[in-house]
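REQUEST ID: PR-0412
SUBMITTED BY: lab tech R.K.
PRIORITY: routine
TASK: structure prediction, single protein chain
INPUT:
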Amino acid sequence: MATKHSRISASVAIQAKGLRKSYGEQQVLKGVDFTLEQGSILALLGPNGAGKTTTIRILSTLLKPDEGSASVNGFDVVKKSAQVRASIGLTGQFAAVDDYMTGRENILMIGQLYHLPAEDLPERTRDLLEQFDLVDAADRPARTYSGGMKRRLDLAMSLVASPAILFLDEPTTGLDPRSRLALWHMIKELARGGTTILLTTQYMEEAEYLADNVIVIDHGQVIAEGTVSELKAQAGAERVEVTLKRAKDLHVVRKLAGAEASSDEETLMVTAPARKGAESLYELLGKLNTAKIPLESAALRRPTLDDVFLALTGHATEEEAAKEAKHA
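STATUS: complete
OUTPUT:
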C-alpha cells in the first residue's frame, strides 16, 4: 500500500517535471513538463525524433530519466516502478502479438502474466474479443490477421488487467484509413469508459479527432500546449482562398480582396483574411461574379494543426513534408 507521501493529487493521472534524457551525446529530451488529468486524452504531437517515444518509455518505466521526475497514477516512475506497471497498459508502435498463437491465446497469456484469477480469465477474454470485434477470428493464428486486426488485438491485450492509464505510442502507424478510423472509435470509447489515455502521434487529424488537449514537442522540448482550438488560434484567423483560371486576373482579384490580400503567381491563388467567416467568402465571390472573373476553386480555410506546427517551429511535420515531396 502506498504511503501518504508517495501519492500526489487524486485528479492528476500523469505528471512530468523537467524530464531529460540523452543517448550518448544526443540529447533527446531537454526538460519536458506536463500534467494529464484523470479521464482525459492527451496527445503528444511531433515529428519523428521529437522525443515522444522516449517520453512514453520513461513514463512506462522502460527507461530512467537522466534528470527530472515523473509520477503515473500517483507513483514515482523510478522509486515505485512496480506500482506504475500494475496500473498501466502500453501499446507500442508495432503490434506486440505472438503470430503463432491465436487471438484468444494471446489475450489469455497476458492475463496469466498479470496473475489474474484463472476462473475470471475466460470471461475477460471473451469480453475483450467482443469489444474489439475479434470473435470470428479468435481461434485463428495471429499471423493470419490483417494489420488492423493485429492492432486491435494488441490494444485488447493492453487492457486485460483493466488499467487506469493507457499509453498508445503512434497506435495507427501503418494502418489503412478505414482501419485507422475504426481504431479511433475504439480509443474514444475507452476514454468515455473512464480510461486515461496518453498517445503519441505524427498525424494531425488523429490528435484533432481524439485529444482533449495537445502538447506539441519538437527537438525534445514542449513548444506549445492547449486544446486544439487554442492551438489553432495561434496560427491566425480564417482565410478566404480563391484559385483563378487566368493569370491576368491576379492583380484585379487581389485588389478586390482587400489591402491584406496576398497572391501566388505560380498557383494563381489569392488569399485574404476572413474576419467575418463565411460572409467574407460570400462577399468576395459576389465581387468576382460582378467583375466576371472565372474561378478554378474557392474555399474558406480554417487553421489546421499543420498550420500550428509550421507557425511554431518554422517547418512542416514529416507527414506534410512527405506529401509535398510526393507531389513535387
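NOTES: The first strand starts at residue 12 and ends at 23.
REVIEWED BY: pending
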